Amino acid sequence: MTAETEVLSQLRAQLVDIIAGTFFLLIAAIALGIAVLRRRAGTKILVWLGILSALFGINPLAQTPAVVAAFPQWSAPVFSYIVVFDSYLTLVAGAFAFLQLTMGGLRRLFQLWLAASVVVAVAGIGWFLISGAPSTFIPSNQVLAALGLIIMLVVLTVPKLSRKYLVLSKHRVLTMGMWIFVAEAAYSNIAHPLKYAVPDLVAYVGFGVLLFSFGYVALEMVLNEERRLLSLDKELQIARDLQASILPSGVPQVAGFRIAASYLPMTAVAGDFYEFIDLDERRLGVLVADVSGHGVPAALVASTLKVAMHSADGCTHAPGEVLRRLGNILHSDMRGQFVSAAYLWIDGERRTARYSAAGHPPLLHWRAADNTLLRIESNGLLFGIFADGEYPECNISLGPGDRLLLYTDGLTEPENSAQQAFGDSRLEQVIRESRTLPASELSQRLLEEVRAWRRPGVTQEDDITLIVIDVR
């Protein structure tokens, strides 16, 4: 063989490595790019698949003389470190990727496989840094890789095991890819001791087939997850619309009173509820309730209050009886949840009010005659603790300029950067400072104060309902 022929032969061999390495880096970029674009769905498997492909692609490039020569001469020793790090970390990335496919006992087994891979990688890299020996722990690395592949292949091939231990409903493509990859690995491991030359292209093709089959099921998982999330979004929109339909569309017009209502759910659906029961143009009942927890479970309980309020027909003037009936109806359907509630009855003709509550924050009564703010805590037990509870009533005399506030604890619980709650004292301070503001403007200011108080970058952590009633 002439020198020219030998050089051409070496270049052809390097060209295969360069093309293969570049190809796997391109696949990594595509996988990671899809993971970024589809980040709302479960794309963790694509992330690890991209990292695995990148590590597999870096290895041949870091060992190719043409690639090394393209960098400054002083950087040449760095490539030996890259090769060693890459050789050990490839198995770790692969273990993470396969872990995303498993569940139950197999997931726990693969978590042990992952832990063992990390231990071997740390030991191998550490020993290389200390002694300079790059391959001391490579046999252990290869044994772990073989064990993981065999276990996964058995589970994929046996339908009973795959149904029990895999998150995949369809895995025929991955099973075929695994068989081809394992066959290639077995052929290479048998051929080398027998001194048969195995072209690098065979290994690249074997891994490429595995990568494509893995990528196929990964994309299928991501798309299925995205379809599931879209379905949930539609269901949440329906729930949001239904909840909006059971809340008052506006505030009633009651002679002698101005009313403002604010309702800020923390999520798409909320556990807060309020209702106006207007008997006539001078008398009005107001119910405010707060279900423990958040989201759909709390919203389902809150929605039953709308129907349960029909039980109060004929006794809307008696807050204690209203709450007792509501508590009895809800008690059998609470399922471990609790509800705080407050009911206020106002009579514009007599200028009086009656109030009762079930474990709810106090009613605040601003008295214009002597500029005092009263906290009225006429409380019985939360709904959901005992059936047929007793709820004491408080009679309130009203005068011109008086103000009543009903609210849920989402208004007072937000914390600032010093972990101090907005609290009752701050709430009362704002009410005193805003005594000349109309009901709607006071409501707006309180919500602005709470938003300003909340820690920067922290979203609303509870539902907020606020009812302000001014006496004219």
| Tally of strands | 11
Gross morphology is elongated
Order of helices and strands: HHHHHHHHHEEEHHEEEEEEEHHE
Q: What is the CATH top level name of the largest domain?
A: Mainly Alpha
Oligomer: single chain
**Which architecture name of the largest domain does CATH use?**
Up-down Bundle
User: What amount of the residues lies in strands?
Assistant: 15-25%
Protein model, in words:
By secondary structure, this protein is of the alpha+beta class. It has helices at residues 3-37, 44-62, 65-69, 76-99, 104-131, 138-157, 159-165, 172-191, 200-246, 295-308, 319-331, 423-433, 439-453; strands at residues 257-264, 272-280, 283-291, 339-347, 352-358, 363-367, 372-376, 379-380, 394-397, 403-407, 464-471. It folds into 2 domains: 3-234, Rhopdopsin 7-helix transmembrane proteins, CATH 1.20.1070; 251-471, PPM-type phosphatase domain (Phosphatase 2c, domain 1, 4-Layer Sandwich), CATH 3.60.40. The protein contains 13 helices and 11 strands. The strands form 2 sheets. Strands 2, 3, 4, 5, 8 and 9 form a 6-stranded mixed β-sheet that branches. It has a 5-stranded antiparallel β-sheet with strand order 1-11-10-6-7, with helices on one face.
